[in-house]
Amino acid sequence: MQIAVIDIGGTKIKYGVLTGTGELLHHDSVPTEAKRGGEAVIRTVCGLCNELKERFPVEGVAISSAGQIDHEKGTVVFATDNIPGYTGTDVAEIVGRHTGLPVTVENDVNCTALGEHWKGAARGMDDFICLTVGTGIGGALFLDGRLYTGARFSAGEIGHLCLYPGGRPCTCGNRGCFEQYASSIALAGLVRDEFGDGFSLEEFFGKVSDGDERAVKIFNAWVDDLTTGLQSLVHIFNPEGIIIGGGVSEQGDVLIEAIRKSLDGKIMPNHRKSLTVRAAEQGNKANLLGAAAHFLERRAGR
Ligand SMILES: [Zn+2]
User: Fold this and answer.
1) Residue 109 phi/psi, 5° resolution?
2) pTM score over 0.90
């Protein structure tokens, strides 16, 4: 079978066609133009579905979306003002009516976790935590062989763990949240303070790899904040794996080894033994894979 897959992000809508075995037959992206609001974004999605329907014999639409998603009804429980008016949007109903196809919707970080579980770094793991480290920090909890989404589909907001009470203000309205210190934006801020403007994170990681003292010091301070957040999660959930996705995961071994080393110093020995830290493997395809995995699960009635 073939499934139309769509990933609605803050800057891009990625879309494509996947087979039931996870082979990506086609993929492309368009700008989200999020500021136009939720209704306009969903109109774009409907247009993309039509385009895919004309070219491929798709039997359904699987959507990965920013925001907290009721994955049973396919509605947006809560979304920030990045996409104005998106909260409350009945995505599955609108896209289903427009295409005449069955439609499923799941949160984008949950889709990253499902995609990595199906075809990536979390293959075969029954208990893992997935973190996407980018402009913010997204989280997904995969426990006992399935996603854990909480009482109202909003579990796993790892980015808003309180790291420093009374600290920097956060987009969620609180202060001192994890993502204000351990996201790639936070790292970029530290780099700017030390090296000035116009110094990219890529150049910075080059310096870290070369052993530049100032760069290594900043890197270690940032990793220290990152692993202080992870420390609590490991002790609460005793995961088999921590999967790091998002832009920084491209740094691969340098990053993963630093996290592992720092985290080992903060967690109990029995937790240390059973834990694997890995970079996500499917990159920007993970969400499309995960959306399809979610579609197939729901179709199978699981
Ligand atoms: Zn917050």
Assistant:
1) -70, -35
2) yes
Strand partners, 24: 18
Residue 75 has pLDDT above 90, yes or no: yes
Centroid of ligand 1 to alpha carbon of 173 (angstroms): 6
| CA of 177 relative to ligand 1 center, distance in Å | 5
Q: What is the Å distance from ligand 1's center to 158 Cα?
A: 9
| pLDDT tens, position by position, 230-239 | 999 999 999 9
Q: Cα of 245 to ligand 1 centre, how many Å?
A: 19
CA–CA dist 36, 85 (Å, integer): 9
Query: What is the residue-wise DSSP string for 138-204?
Result: EEEEEETTEEE-TTTT----GGGSBSSTT-SB-TTS-BSBTHHHHSHHHHHHHHHHHH-TT--HHHH
Reported as a single tens digit per residue, the pLDDT across 251-283 is 889 999 999 999 999 999 999 999 999 999 999
- Centre of ligand 1 from the C-alpha of residue 168, in Å: 9
